[in-house]
Amino acid sequence: MSEVTETVPPKAPPGGQIAPISVGDWFITLIITAIPLIGFIMLFVWGFGSSTHPSKANWAKATLLLFVVAFVLFFMFSFIFGIAFMASGY
Q: pLDDT, tens digit, for every residue of 58-71?
């Protein structure tokens, strides 16, 4: 017989509240995200992983969204100023 396993989200402690993330955990999180490629990959792991604390998951998703907005704005301004530079004759 084959056994089926399911991923179960973490249960909230009695009272319905999840314990907050400690300052030390946030400090380690910020250090990990400062590592160029590893930090970017970890944002996806934390943002879309099933065992991540909800606060950290929301923070990771918001950070990824901020990266997307910055990326789009960078290329939009580069395109606009690139055309203006080419049109100026330099």
A: 999 999 999 999 99
Q: What is the 3-state secondary structure (H, E, C) of the chain?
A: CCCCCCCCCCCCCCCCCCCCCCHHHHHHHHHHHCCHHHHHHHHHHHHHCCCCCHHHHHHHHHHHHHHHHHHHHHHHHHHHHHHHHHHCCC
pTM score, whole prediction: 0.74
Q: Would you state the structure tokens that stand for residue 87, as one six-digit string?
A: 């049109």
Q: Which residues are CB-neighbours of 39 under 8 A, at least 6 positions away? A: 32, 33
pLDDT tens, 16-54? 788 999 999 999 999 999 999 999 999 999 999 999 999
